Each structure stands twice: as C-alpha cells, then as structure tokens.
Amino acid sequence: MIPAAFEYTKPSTVDEAVRALAEGGEDARVLAGGQSLIPMLRLRMAAPTLLVDLGGLGELRGVRDDGDALVIGAMTRYADLLRDPLVRDHAPLLAQATATVADRQVRHLGTIGGSLAEADPAGDLPSVAVALDVSFEVVGPGGWRTISAADFFVDFLTTALGDGEMLGALRVPKQDGWGTHYEKFSRVAQAWSIVGVAVAVRRENGTIAEARVGLTSMGNRPLRARAVEEALAGAPATAEAVSSAAARAAEGADPPTDVWASAEYRSHLATVLTRRAVVAAGGIHAS
Amino acid sequence: MTRISITVDGVRYDDDVEARTLLVHHLRDRLGKVGTVVGCDTSNCGACTVLMAGDAVKSCNVLAVQADGTEIITIEGLAGGDGSLHPVQQAFHDRHALQCGFCTPGMILAAVDLLAENPDPSDAEIREGIEGNLCRCTGYQNIVRAVRDAASALRGAQVAEPASAVDGQMPGTPQAPPAVPSEPESVPVEAVPRPVP
Is A180-282 CATH 3.40.50.2300? Predict the structure, then answer.
C-alpha cells in the first residue's frame, strides 16, 4: 500500500517545527521515527496534509543528567536508550521495557517521544511513564509547558497536546534506591503486549515502603493500579502480601476484548503479571 | 517533490522523490535494487530489511525522504567486489538456511546487524535478534545455525589480523586458512551507472 500524498517539511530547529505545525493547520502531523505512523499512512487510516519531520532536530535527541532526573529528548530512539549508560544506571525500568518493544529494526527508528505521543495503551512505554510520574515537556505556539504523566494520556490515541503543540522532552525521575521490573505477556514475537505491568518498589527494612504500578493494555490509556499500590504501601515484603495486593490489579481497569484476549482473561493476567513484577522488582523470596 | 541524496551499496544517487515514496519502492523501482524484496507490506515480516546508516531497518516502513543523506547497504552490496560471499551469506549457503529464499535478503541483513552489536550471541539471543524477520517455509533451526556459524567466522576473521601480526615472533606457527572468505566489512559491488529515467 502507498500512502496518500502529503506535503513534507524537515525543519532544522524546534522554532521552525512549531511554526510549520501552526501553518499546516489541524491536518498537519509530526513525523518522529514513523514506526507507527507510516503503517497508518499506508493503510490510509491517517491522511495528513503535511508531515513535519523532526528527524533533523538534533537538539531533541539524547539523554542528559539533571540532578534527580534524566532529561530525554523526544527524538531519542529506542536503540539510543538501550545503549545509554545514564538510562541503564538511573532508569532501568525504562531500559527493560524499551528492550521489549517490537524488534531491532523498529527500535532503530522508533523514538520515545513518538511512542508516548502516539498514546497507544498497548504500547510499552506509556505505562512506564505513568508508573514513574514522568513529566512531559511540550512546546507549541505559546512556548514550553510541562504536563504530568497523569494528565498527558487522555484517551485511546489521545493526549493533552494542544493544537500546534509537540512533545519536546521527557523528564524521568531517577529510580536510585528503587527496584524495578517490566513484565510483559505476548503470544508471538514482535507482538503488542496482551498485558504489561511496569513496577517500581522501594523497600525499607522488611517492608515495602512504596510501590508504583503501571498497566499496559488494560484500558483506553495507560493506567496506574492504585489499589495494588495502596495495598503494598507499608506491607511486609513477603510473597503472601504481594499476592494479596496483586489480586487487586484489575480494580478500576477497563480492559479491551479483542482478537488476542477477552477482557476477563486480561484482568486475570494483570493479577498474575503484577505479582511476578512486584516479586522481581522487590527482590522478594518465596517464604 | 523533495530532493534526496542517498548512497546505496557504495554508489551515490540524487533524485527528486514524492514525500510519500517508501524507501523500498525507491530502491526497487527507481534504483533497480530488486534484491530488496517486498514481503508482507505491513512492516511485520522484515524481508525488506536494509542497513541504513549502519542499522537494520524495514525499508517498507521508512520514507525515502527519511533516508536522505544516509548510506544504505542492501543484500546486493554485501558480497566482496570479487564476488566472494559475505560470511553471513556463506553461512546461510553452507547451512541450507533457506528454502524458498524470499525472507533471505532481510534475514541476512538482520543477522549482519545483530552480529555487529553482539559478535558472540547465544541461540536465544540470535532468536531474539532476528525476531523482526519471519520465515514461513524452512523454519528457523538452520537460520539460527547459520547465524551462529557466521558469528564464529566473523570472530575468526577479526582475530586473524592481530594473530598474523605476531606471526613473525612465533616462527613455525601454522597459519590456518580462513574458514570462509573473510570480508567483515561490506564492500560495494562495482558501480553500475543507472539508466536515466
């Protein structure tokens, strides 16, 4: 399949990109790595009049240390994240989830910003972003502003990005002192998660002081499993306590039924994967 | 139309393309690089894999304009100038790692990409590494064996150079012939002038 015709521009600065988006109007779209957009163009599920290719914006690529957080340019590719020592040392949950995205070819072009702005609830990085309370630095005609992860994901493939705005960078809190794990279930290679669970756990002595749990493919957007988090806060770091907390993983979720799995199956899977992820993240041994 | 300049298998091409042109169509229909095939046309199967700026990409999932300024290696640019096969090609031949051969160009380039990053992968790492490439007839057993053999051949080729450098200090050391024609770096085929469309 061949995409419908569109205009194309490749700005060399963020200001130029914002201007091009504004001039392009409501049918202008950003091209990041294109690994989700190009298939949609080919299926003609998307037919923008203008593509603004951010591939020339070196200022939006790369990872830098900013004290208690990493600042990651939106155009940083998955493959770059996997090779980055800062990400490996301070954001291991992001690294682990990124390694499960699609396949090597897709990871060579796909970007963290593209994945998050796509806001596919079956994507692996959105649930990591909500679990870690990543801040979204966005830029548009009104300049830069920050959107919290809780507010960024609005609905299926829908974000809080306003007209003419684009994602510029992610501020990822360092997970120093936390144990983390991404647990993903899919039936075949390079497939989307049927369910994925992103977990960060902070232990104090024999208890779980704090836990964050993000869910992939359990609703119209990436979700936090708040009931699990509340049950884990202050709980003993034992397999029994984790099992009982994980049993609440699907509370408040609204998982889809599709060709891969029913909603009931997903709800059950979420409890199993959450248990496994918390056990792995917290270094919890069977008692 | 957008002007792009890409180097494919060592030859530079400047062309005006429609922005919607997919890289695979540009390679095949405009540049005549038909060794790169279209398989599933849905960005799943990986048959159209090429190396772009050194990284494996699915050329049906890249716009030609995104490739502007990059160097592309296709399956046609992998063999040595004298026609000697690249170690990965040779290993696929030796291990009978193909039946119909349709997935082979992409499978080989995916393997080249993997081995550049991980020269000594385990079987599990090979399977993970080529998960973006689907074979629907011969199965993956011989493909994995071929990638393993190629890894070993490439590592041998790499250590052969320093080893031969110290040969002078160790007279009498027999020099084993390389197992395969070693050419770890891809060498472009002879430039064939492209007919003006």
Answer: no
